[in-house]
Amino acid sequence: MDTIENSRSDVSLQMERVLYEVKRVVVGQDHFLERVLVAILAGGHLLVEGVPGLAKTLTVKTLAKTIRGSFHRIQFTPDLVPADLVGTRIYNQKTGEFSTSLGPVFSNLLLADEINRAPAKVQSALLEVMQERQVTIAGTTHLVPEPFLVMATQNPIETEGTYPLPEAQVDRFMMKVVVGYPSEEEEFVIVNRVTTQDQEVASVTTTEELARLQRHCRDCYIDPSLVRYAVRLVAATRDPERCNVPHLKHYLSCGASPRASIHLVEGARALALLRGRSHVRPEDVVDLVPDVLRHRLSLSYEALADNVTPDQIIHRILKHLPPPERVLENHVKVDANA
């Protein structure tokens, strides 16, 4: 128990230091920043949707500085080719030999800006590195650095010249976070910070330490009843009638895959550790459900005609499927006494 408690406090303390440094530069966006830390701890990728100018690039760049990791940004365009992403073989005329030039995916934090503007060949190259953490160039496999996080952005208001992401690639993203405009008070602080002296960001941890924290994340306890609840929520998107939400059947043409259940459990563990606990509570699972499921739901024509959004469907599922009660009583008592 002492080992688990020490791991819990260690992870929470380290992430608090990282968050403190990031928030010295990034104002507001608390939900977005929390989801970024959850993705890092759980080893998942993040899909971010928001209009330009909401500090998406600044967040990842600042985060890379705090963990002393490498950061690359790729601006996805229609003329992008896979070699621009993963690298290629270059012929040296002096030596008469080929050498491998690795692409920008070989970094700890990769920002894929406007990911839906690249064609299918580029998306397939990114799909391999997201899933397998490796790149194959001329028959040779190259592993990307660990930890490895892809944060991709999409612009919701400009769809001309874009390519819809393949369902297989969308499913690889652990969460989809919708970033909104800051409040007037937050925007006032943003303008003051940008128009005055730049804030220096300190490196508070290392990539090796972050990899250790990711391993500790697997030690966070989650009750089997909460795992069953996560599975039931995901199953409700595939078979609403069986899960007591039959009125949603005509709104869904395809539900979420089992990868959604896995990401929901892994994300809940990471969120519990960020909140200073060594066990998962029902609210940890519930809080992550919209971010984990919203990009995995394929809506039917009836849903589009009725202007029904994935978030509305998820809200109805959560309303009809409440979380289990009286879970983790023994663990909560032990945690309180400690």
From TrEMBL:
Organism superkingdom: Bacteria
Keywords, comma-separated and alphabetical: ATP-binding, Nucleotide-binding
Signal peptide start-end: none
GO MF terms held by the record: ATP binding; ATP hydrolysis activity
Stored SUPFAM superfamilies: P-loop containing nucleoside triphosphate hydrolases
Residue span, ChlI/MoxR AAA lid domain: 251-317
The ATPase AAA-3 domain, residue ranges: 45-175
PANTHER family assigned: MAGNESIUM-CHELATASE SUBUNIT CHLD, MOXR FAMILY PROTEIN
The name this protein goes by in its record: ATPase
Protein's organism: Noviherbaspirillum denitrificans
Source taxonomy: Bacteria, Pseudomonadati, Pseudomonadota, Betaproteobacteria, Burkholderiales
